[in-house]
Amino acid sequence: MNARNLTLGSLRELGTVGLVAGLCGAYAATLIMAASMLGALDDGSGSGADAMLTVVASVFIGIALYVGTVVIINAVDTVISGRLRHIALLRLLGSSARSLRRSVMRSTVTVGAVGAAAGLLAGTALADVVRIVLVSRGTMPKGDYPLVSPQLAVAFVLIAASAMVAGWLGSRVVLGVSPATALAGTTAYRRAPLRKSVLRAVLAVLFLGGGFAVLGLGAMVGESSEMGFFIAFLGSVASATGLLIGARFVIPRVVSMFSRLLGGDPSSRIARRNAVLDPLRTTRSTMGLVIGVTLVTTFASGMRALSDSVSSWDLDPEQAAMARQVLSVASTVLICIIVISSIIAAVGFVSTMSLTVLQRHREIGLLRALGFTRSQVRTMITKESVALSASAVLFGIALGLVYGTLGAQSLVGVMTTGLVWGLPLPALIVIALAGLVLVLVSSRRPARRAVAVTPVEALRIEA
Amino acid sequence: MTSSISLQHNQTQPVLAMHQVSKLYGEGSGRVAALDEVSVAIPRGGFTAIMGPSGSGKSTFMNVAAGLDDATSGEVVLAGQPLSKLGDEGRTVLRREQVGFVFQAFNLVPTLSALENILLPFDLAGRKVTAEQRQWIDQLVHTLGLAERIDHRPSELSGGQQQRVAIARALASQPAIIFADEPTGNLDSRSSREVLTLLRTASREYGQTIAMVSHDPVAASYADRILVIADGRIVGDHGPLTPQQISDLLIGFEIGAPA
Ligand SMILES: Nc1ncnc2c1ncn2[C@@H]1O[C@H](COP(=O)(O)OP(=O)(O)OP(=O)(O)O)[C@@H](O)[C@H]1O
Ligand SMILES: [Mg+2]
């Protein structure tokens, strides 16, 4: 058995890394190919549109990569946290924390690169097949389309690099493992004390406060001037940056607040404590969902507010119908493009839930011995999943409504009296349903595993 | 509650009765009888030590007796209830209401404070802590030297402190029987003495039934009955003995036992 196996277990436990890298790859390839085809279409009409498309595609790929990286960090962190004793043993036998982390990093790069290559290949093939079908049907004009794009190589390098960074950051837990842990009789969970980052807190507050103030200002200016949207855009970017920087302060509070609603019986209490046991993990496992839901809600809400204000304008019915049609097509396309980040986040969430149950094998066995029935154990796991995912979804919806509404206001406030709330009910219902499905999917397998734990085998000394 | 009625009803019956209980592991030639037709009764209020060489079946005995594991054959009657007639749910509820545990290695729920761990059996059974019980718990916490650590999480406690919290939890709800696997394994000799004295007091003065697995002759000398298990069978059933007598007794079996 080599050090990697002892640190990370089998490569199978890195399945999430491969899957996420694959999804990012497929997504990136699809967007890149779509952009390059569109570029080939409007050949000659100037390269301005070309560059614009590349920028837009890069932004979306960047978001997906960011979410993917967070998910991978969390997967690695969770796997390693479950093996602290093995790692302590390795440390006792003379491995340095640095070399252990490096071996983790090598594994995630390898798995990430394989996943990325497979995903890019699949995405490219998909795009090419769709294009050939569309061209043969006459939907798309014949033309000189590229089969591949040089940007795919850039995407590959970026994804592999993200997996590498994620491996390094995710293995930070190793630092908190002292060799003595191997000798202690307990498997208590201890995290390496985080550097108390005052700088991070200050930056988060500045960006958040400032960003939302500027966003509000943009909405107000939008009432009387076209400049509003630009100001609001700056405000959104700043406040979103603040949220990303300060997520580890904000999200655990949101989860903790929301999970109070779960009830006070022992299974709820333990579920709640586990949900916020480690603020960083809580943040990482929900942040992707928050980002995804926020983006989807922002677009849905913004489009809704726009189409509502279009209705209040003085347009003849034909024009109004036309405008609404354009808006609805645009929002559908945008939401489809953005939804992939939510899917990556959801994949990460499901895998984190599974891994934490593996990690808590002994605890569950103990609870069973002390008198938790199977259904109480199942409830406990489901409630933990609810606490995390529902908080993420609700928080994301709230943010999205604010961004979408203020954004739309800043854009068309001039032409509409008062503030038009963008309450995209159908979209909200779909998001809520998706959240429900996510809870069911993410808690089913872990709950089944948890229920199958028997106290006797879980509590054996060398469990 | 039906269980407390049956408890009073069976006041004269043993808390634990095993009739020809066997527990077999494996198949064919690799078959091991971890328990081999064991019959034994543990009366109310007794403090029983279970001893025997490593691999003799002590932990298996405890697991089967407490309803944590199924017997292959035979019948276990715990607190008046035949375990073979209970499903998983019924046994879970029986454990929750009638059994206290101290395990050897992993005892406490990591996310709960020491006090919450101690009160967990009450919470699970949906019972309120009466003033009298509160007093008993305070006394336990004090005797076990946990008063200052009561709001700490298990990860902030030493191994010995964790074990003492588990002992407090087992004693707090005054269950029909406490099963303890090496409860003094992590303790120094002074706290070990204090814990054993506490167990003996609980048994003598409050009628607490205790079954304790131990390798330590000194620990076993606090018990009022000593069962010796070898090769899955009960090969000795003694009254109270001195540590020296127990050592002599065990040496005979260690030599006789297959490696
Ligand atoms: N799950 C299992 N599968 C197969 N054999 C088992 C299993 N559990 C226990 N055994 C066997 O049953 C026998 C009794 O085991 P048990 O754990 O009860 O011993 P013990 O008396 O508690 O030993 P120790 O003092 O070392 O803890 C041993 O021979 C052991 O190898
Ligand atoms: Mg044992």
UniProtKB/TrEMBL annotation, chain A:
Where does the record place a coiled coil?
A: none
* Record protein name field: FtsX-like permease family protein
Q: Where mainly located? A: membrane
Which PANTHER family does the record associate with it? ABC TRANSPORTER PERMEASE YTRF, MEMBRANE COMPONENT OF TRANSPORTER-RELATED
| InterPro entries listed in its UniProt record | ABC3_permease_C, Macrolide_Exporter_MacB
Q: Which organism is it from?
A: Knoellia koreensis
Picking any one GO molecular function of the record gives: transmembrane transporter activity
Membrane-crossing residue ranges in chain numbering:
52-76, 108-134, 154-177, 198-221, 227-251, 287-306, 326-358, 386-406, 418-441
* Family, per entry: Belongs to the ABC-4 integral membrane protein family.
Q: Which residues form the ABC3 transporter permease C-terminal domain?
A: 59-178, 336-450
Q: How does it sit in the membrane?
A: Multi-pass membrane protein
Query: Per the record's keyword annotation, is Lipid metabolism included, yes or no?
Result: no
Keyword Thylakoid among record annotations: no
**Where in the cell is the protein located?**
Cell membrane
Q: Which GO terms describe its cellular component?
A: plasma membrane
Q: Which UniProt keywords apply?
A: Cell membrane, Membrane, Transmembrane, Transmembrane helix
From TrEMBL, chain B:
Tell me the InterPro entries matching this sequence. AAA+_ATPase, ABC_transporter-like_ATP-bd, ABC_transporter-like_CS, ABC_transpr_LolD-like, MacB-like_ATP-bd, P-loop_NTPase
Give any Pfam family that matches.
Answer: ABC_tran
Q: Does the record's keyword annotation contain ATP-binding?
A: yes
Q: Which keywords belong to this entry?
A: ATP-binding, Nucleotide-binding, Transport
Q: Which regions span the lipid bilayer? A: none
Got a GO cellular component term for this one? plasma membrane
- What region holds the ABC transporter domain? 16-254
**Which GO terms label this protein's molecular function in UniProt?**
ATP binding; ATP hydrolysis activity; transmembrane transporter activity
Q: Which domain of life is it from?
A: Bacteria
Put simply, this protein is called ABC transporter ATP-binding protein
